[in-house]
Design goal:
The complex is a heterotrimer of chains A (353), B (151) and C (102).
Chain A lengths: L1 H12 L2 H9 L1 E3 L8 H20 L10 H10 L4 H29 L7 H23 L4 H12 L8 H9 L6 H33 L5 H4 L7 E3 H26 L3 E3 L19 H9 L3 E2 L2 E2 H17 L1 H4 L6 H25 L1
Antiparallel strand pairs in A: 1-2, 4-5
Helix pairs in contact in A: 3-5, 3-11, 4-5, 5-6, 5-11, 5-15, 6-9, 12-13, 12-15
Chain B lengths: L9 H28 L8 E5 L1 H4 L5 E7 L2 E7 L5 E5 L10 E3 L4 E4 L4 E4 L4 E3 L8 E7 L2 E6 L6
Antiparallel strand pairs in B: 1-10, 2-3, 3-4, 4-9, 5-6, 6-7, 7-8, 9-10
Chain C lengths: L2 H23 L10 H4 L9 E3 L5 H37 L2 H4 L3
The chains are: A mainly alpha (353), B alpha+beta (151), C mainly alpha (102).
C-alpha cells in the first residue's frame, strides 16, 4: 500500500530524485560532528515558532487599543493560551541561542571556506532576519516594558549619519512609537519576515545539500576520507534524539517559567524601571552605553553605531577575508571568534547589572 | 499456548512500538492545540437588566438586549406581560425583527415568519424562536435560560 | 494473517493505548476556562502584571501529568531510537545501503 502511494507521487512529482539523493547523502563522523546538529535544531525551533505563531495570531489583535488586552485574553481566557504564548516566547530565545552557537561553530571551524562563502552570507542574513523577528515580536504585547524598549531600539538608528532619521521614521511609521509602529511591526513579523526567511533558507539549505557537509580544517589535508554515515536513516535518527530532548527541555521550561504581561503601554508615562532589551541584544546595547557622549566632535552614539555596522560588514565578508585559513591571519580570525564570545558575555552580564 | 511462529519480527515490533508511541506523543501535543483553536463558547446562564428601561415599553413592541453575543428580544404583550426570546432565526442564524402592525416576527434572509408568540408560521424556519424565562424582581429584569419544566 | 498485518495491528494497538491513556490523564486541564476572573489574585481595575499560570487545581495537576508523560515518552522514544540507530549502523557496516538498488 505504501509503495503504491510513493510511486503515484513519484510519477507526478519526480520525487525519486530527492529520495535517491537523501539516501546517498552522507555525513562525516569526526570530533566536531556534534556541531552538525545545530542547523536542524534551529529548524525545529523555527517550526515550533510557526505553529505557535499561527495559533497566537488567531486571537491577537494588532491595534493600539486591543493588543495588550488580546494578549491578556490569550493568557487568561483561551484554554492553555498561556502555554502557547510561553512556548512561543521561549522557543524564540532557544532559536536565537542556537543560531549563535551554529554561527560560532562555523566561524571557528572555518566551514565558510571556498566554495561555501554564499552559505555563510545567506547565514548572516538569516541571523539578521532572526534578530528582527525577535525585535518586532517583542513590541506586540504593547505593555510598558516592550513599548519603552522599542522606543529605545528604534531611536538607535538615528545616530547613523545622513540616513539615520529616515531609518528611524521607516521603522516607527512616523516620528514616534505609536499605534502605527505596532501595526507595522506586526505586518513585518507575521508577513514580510517569514517570506524573507523562507527564501533565504531555501538558498541556504540548497547550498548545504549541493556542496555536502564541510570537513574541519585538519581533516582536509588527509588522504583517506573520514568515516561517514548515511544521512538517512543513521544521521536523521540521531537528529531525532536531539529534537526530542530539546522539545522536552523547551516545554518544561515554558510550562514552569511562563512570561508575564505588564500593564498596557502609556505613551505619556515615564520609562518603567528595569527596562532593557531581550538578552540577545544586551551586549550591543551595553556597547552603546559605554561610549562617552562625545568623541572628538562627533556624538558618541554615532561612533558606536558606525563601529557596529563596520564590524557587521567585516563579519558578512568573513570568508573573503579568511583566504589563508592555516596561516597567522586565519588563526587570528579564529581567536577573534573567542574574543567576541568573551566580549558579548561580559557586556551582557554588565548590561544585566 | 505456545505459538509455532512469531507474530512479527523483532524489527517490526521495534518499528511498531516506536511509531505507535511517537504517534501518541504527537497526538498528546495536538490536544492543547485543538483546545486552543476551539475555545468553549458559553451562553450566559442569566442576564440581569434594569427594569426601568423596559417599564414604559408600549404594548405590542419589542426591545433588544444582549444575550451573550446573540440578540435577545424583550416583547411586551397586549395584556402588559413580558416575553423574552433569543432573536436568532432558527433557520440559518440571521437576526429577526418584530413587525408590530402585522404582529409577526420576520427574518429578512429567507422570508421567515413567526407569530407574536414566536411560533414559526411561514417560510423555512423549522422551529419556533427560543423562549427565555423572564422574571421581574423589583427594579431588576432577570432573564434566564428556559428551565426544562417550563415556566 | 501476514506478518505485515500483525505489525500494523501492533502499531495501531500501541498508538491507541497511548492515546487513551494520555487522553484520560489530560482530561484535567479542561476546566481551565471556568471562573477566570475569580482565579486572578488581584482583581483591580488594571493589574500591574498578569502572570501566565494554570487556573485551578485540576489544571495544575494536569500540567504535572503532562510533563511526566512527556519525559517518559522522550526517554522511551530515545531508547527505541538508539536501538534503531544501532541497527542502521550495523546495516551500514555490512554495506546494506550501498547494495540496495531499489
Amino acid at each position: 500500500m505504501k509503495i503504491g502511494i510513493r510511486s503515484w507521487l513519484d510519477e507526478r512529482f519526480g520525487l525519486s530524485g530527492i529520495t535517491d539523493f537523501l539516501t546517498k547523502k552522507t555525513v562525516p563522523l569526526h570530533r566536531h560532528t556534534i556541531w552538525y546538529y545545530t542547523g536542524s535544531a534551529i529548524l525545529l525551533f523555527f517550526a515550533i515558532q510557526v505553529i505557535t505563531g499561527f495559533m497566537l495570531v488567531l486571537y491577537y489583535k494588532p491595534t493600539l487599543e486591543m493588543a495588550n488586552e488580546s494578549v491578556a485574553r490569550i493568557m487568561t481566557e483561551i484554554p492553555l493560551g498561556w502555554i502557547i504564548r510561553s512556548v512561543h516566547s521561549w522557543s524564540a530565545s532557544f532559536m536565537i541561542a542556537f543560531v549563535f552557537v551554529h554561527l560560532l561553530s562555523i566561524w571557528i571551524a572555518k566551514s565558510y571556506r571556498r566554495p561555501r562563502e554564499l552559505t555563510w552570507m545567506t547565514g548572516v542574513m538569516l541571523l539578521v532576519v532572526s534578530l528582527l523577528f525577535g525585535f518586532t515580536g517583542y513590541l506586540l504585547p504593547w505593555d510598558d516594558l516592550s513599548f519603552s524598549a522599542t522606543k529605545v531600539g528604534t531611536d538607535i538608528p538615528r545616530a547613523i549619519p545622513v540616513v539615520g532619521a529616515w531609518v528611524t521614521k521607516l521603522l516607527r511609521g512616523g516620528e514616534d512609537v505609536t499605534g502605527d509602529t505596532l501595526t507595522r511591526f506586526f505586518g513585518i513579523h507575521v508577513c514580510m519576515l517569514p517570506v524573507f526567511l523562507f527564501l533565504l533558507l531555501a538558498v541556504h539549505i540548497y547550498l548545504v545539500q549541493k556542496q555536502g557537509m564541510s570537513l574541519p580544517l585538519e581533516a582536509e589535508g588527509r588522504q583517506e576520507k573520514p568515516k561517514e554515515i548515511p544521512f538517512w536513516p543513521n544521521f536523521v535518527f540521531r537528529e531525532m534524539i536531539v529534537w526530542l530532548l530539546l522539545i522536552g527541555i523547551l516545554f518544561t521550561i515554558a510550562i514552569f517559567f511562563p512570561p508575564s504581561l505588564h500593564k498596557v503601554a502609556d505613551v505619556m508615562a515615564p520609562a518603567p524601571e528595569g527596562i532593557r532589551p531581550e538578552w540577545y541584544f544586551l551586549f550591543l546595547f551595553q556597547t552603546l552605553k559605554i561610549f562617552p557622549a562625545h568623541v572628538l566632535f562627533v556624538s558618541g552614539e554615532t561612533v558606536a553605531v558606525l563601529l557596529i555596522i563596520f564590524a557587521g560588514i567585516l563579519f558578512f565578508f568573513l570568508p573573503v577575508f579568511d583566504n589563508k585559513p592555516t596561516q597567522v591571519k586565519g588563526k587570528m580570525i579564529t581567536l577573534s571568534a573567542y574574543a567576541l564570545v568573551l566580549y558579548a558575555l561580559i557586556m551582557s552580564v554588565w548590561g544585566l547589572l | 499456548m505456545k505459538l509455532k511462529h512469531s507474530l512479527f519480527t523483532r524489527r517490526q515490533f521495534l518499528n511498531g512500538v516506536l511509531g505507535g508511541w511517537l504517534g501518541a506523543f504527537l497526538a498528546s501535543l495536538v490536544y492543547p492545540v485543538v483546545k486552543f483553536i476551539f475555545p468553549p463558547y458559553r451562553e450566559p446562564d442569566e442576564v440581569i437588566l434594569s427594569f426601568s428601561d423596559y417599564k414604559d415599553m408600549p404594548r405590542n413592541s419589542v426591545k433588544n438586549f444582549a444575550w451573550g453575543s446573540k440578540l435577545g428580544l424583550v416583547k411586551r404583550n397586549d395584556n402588559g406581560t413580558y416575553f423574552a426570546f433569543v432573536g436568532v432565526c432558527t433557520h440559518l442564524d440571521c437576526n429577526v425583527t418584530y413587525m408590530s402592525e402585522q404582529r409577526k416576527f420576520f427574518c429578512a434572509c429567507h422570508d421567515g415568519w413567526y407569530d407574536e408568540n414566536g411560533v414559526n408560521i411561514g417560510g423555512p424556519p423549522p422551529e419556533p424562536l427560543r423562549r427565555l424565562t423572564l422574571i421581574i424582581a423589583g427594579d431588576e429584569l432577570i432573564i434566564k435560560k428556559e428551565s426544562p419544566e417550563g415556566l | 494473517m501476514t506478518l505485515k498485518r500483525r505489525a500494523t495491528l501492533l502499531f495501531l494497538f500501541t498508538f491507541l493505548f497511548q492515546v487513551v491513556w494520555a487522553g484520560t490523564s489530560l482530561c484535567y486541564p479542561q476546566q481551565a476556562v471556568e471562573k477566570k476572573e475569580a482565579s486572578l489574585p488581584q482583581k483591580e481595575e488594571t493589574p500591574e502584571k498578569i502572570v501566565g499560570a494554570p487556573q485551578n487545581v485540576k489544571e495544575k495537576a494536569g500540567i504535572w501529568v503532562f510533563v511526566a508523560w512527556m519525559w517518559i515518552s522522550v526517554f522511551v522514544l530515545v531508547y527505541f531510537l538508539r536501538l534503531k540507530i544501532a541497527e542502521a549502523d550495523r546495516l551500514h557496516g555490512i554495506r546494506f545501503y550501498s547494495l540496495k538498488k531499489d
